[in-house]
Amino acid sequence: MPAARVWGRLLGVNAAVVESVEFDEDGQVLVAAVRVRRRDRDRCGVCSRRCPRYDPGRGRRRWRALDLGTVQAFVEADASRVRCREHGVVVSAVPWARHGTGHTRAFDDTVAWLATATSRSTVRQLMRIAWPTVGSIITRVRADIDARVDRLAGLRRIGIDEISYKKNHRYLTVVVDHDTGRLVWAAAGNDKPTLAAFFELLGADRCARITHVSADAAAWIARTVEQYCPDAIRCADPFHVVKWATDALDQVRRQTWNTARRQPGGSHKDRRGRTASAGPAQGMKRARWALWKNPENLTDHQRHKLAWIAKTDPRLYRAYLLKEGLRHVFAVGGQTGKEALRRWLSWAVRCRIPEFVKLSRTIRSELSAIHASLDHGLSNALIESTNTKIRLLTRLAFGFKHPNALISLALLALGGYRPELPDRTHT
Ligand SMILES: [Zn+2]
User: In which order are the strands placed within the sheet that holds 53-55?
Assistant: First the structure.
């Protein structure tokens, strides 16, 4: 095989002609001078249509390619401009990179794959790029996938949710497919116009095929769904109902902790003079995770902690059992779940814990929506895991200036169409 073809394959520029490969002046990075083949020449960077050449543009341009071993590599070529009938004067297309970018397609795809698979610092250090650059790369990789696939095809049962992604009450509205567990759509904002944009995109025909919509109790969601899918059954999102119980439990835990702290021996000053919990109060503070986690995921230590709570604080333990009881309702679902919910309600209303008495009233007011979700077997595990994953991603996405990057990351990771590593078709 001629050396030029070997280099072409190594650099991910198969479709071009490699003219020379050299280290740059400092001897630090490898630069491959390449030229576009005749059949790929003078095409519009946006639509790839063949167009008349306009001018030589701004001369030579460089694209960052994947490292070769430990050495950074760049592809260099002329970047002439063409005049497209539709897009005007634009830089002509190159087969190895997306339009208007400074990285090769193989580099982009590798970054997108890594961003959905590993930590922020790993991507930055391994690929030697800044985090905002990762944001731009995943946004264009997602746009590429969106042009190929229809994320909204075949939707029947959907869940709508709002997720806070920054302080100061910035929210995303997200839509998941209950049947596949995929995230299918997301946009910045949490109001009627934001959600209406989703239904407009879906179109009247496909709106009519939506049979079930789950959501929390937000009025703007209910009103928008009513307008676009009047025949769909509204279900309570099990994730939110269980979260109400978790929140109530947390309020009870905090009261218990504050009371314990104020008792003699409940706190002491640490070396820096700050007040720290001691004795039972300290134990209670650390109980948070044991109370929150699902019992099947508890560590031995957390199990002991729960046993300790049961002994020392029956009221808090009762609150814990009430939370678990409600989770059980959705775990079993169907008629058994409805029966369990009926028993739960009569227990909660008499439990003498104001937070749970209040919760039982909220649940009564949402009863038909909750019954609908038990009847139609909306899996809480699925929604909960999608929710948890999106919330983890929002943390990863700090540092992205625009919510678009976060949305792209979420769609790439949870949308069912994962970015592919370059040149893997044969393995
Ligand atoms: Zn064009």
Answer: 53-55, 81-84, 88-91
**DSSP assignment of 60-86:** EEEEEEEEETTEEEEEEEE--EEEETT
Distance 32 CA to ligand 1 centre (A): 28
- pTM confidence score: 0.80
Q: State in Å: Cα 91 to ligand 1 middle.
A: 10
How far is the centre of ligand 1, averaged over its atoms, from the C-alpha of 10 (Å)? 30
Residue type, 421: L
Report CA 131 to chain centroid distance, whole Å: 17
* Angle of the 131-148 helix axis to the 120-127 helix axis, nearest 10: 100
Q: Read off the pLDDT of residues 29-57 as tens digits, 9 standing for 90 and up.
A: 999 999 999 999 999 999 999 999 999 98
C-alpha neighbours within 13 Å on the C-beta side of residue 78:
14
- Is there a contact between 165 and 405 (Cβ–Cβ < 8 Å)? no
Give the Å distance between the CA of 268 and the centre of ligand 1: 71
Could you give the dihedral angle defined by the CA atoms of residues 105, 111, 115 and 119, in that order, rounded to the nearest 10 degrees?
180
Number of H helices, E strands in the chain: 16, 14
| 81 CA distance to ligand 1 middle (Å) | 11
Ligand 1 center–CA 87 separation, angstroms = 5
Ligand 1 centroid, distance to 44 Cα (angstroms): 5
User: 41 CA distance to ligand 1 centroid (A)?
Assistant: 14
Ligand 1 centre distance from Cα of residue 101 (Å) = 16
d(CA 315, CA 332): 26
Q: What is the pLDDT of residues 367-398, one digit of tens each?
A: 988 999 898 877 656 666 777 888 888 877 77
From ligand 1's centre to the CA of 8, what distance in Å?
A: 27
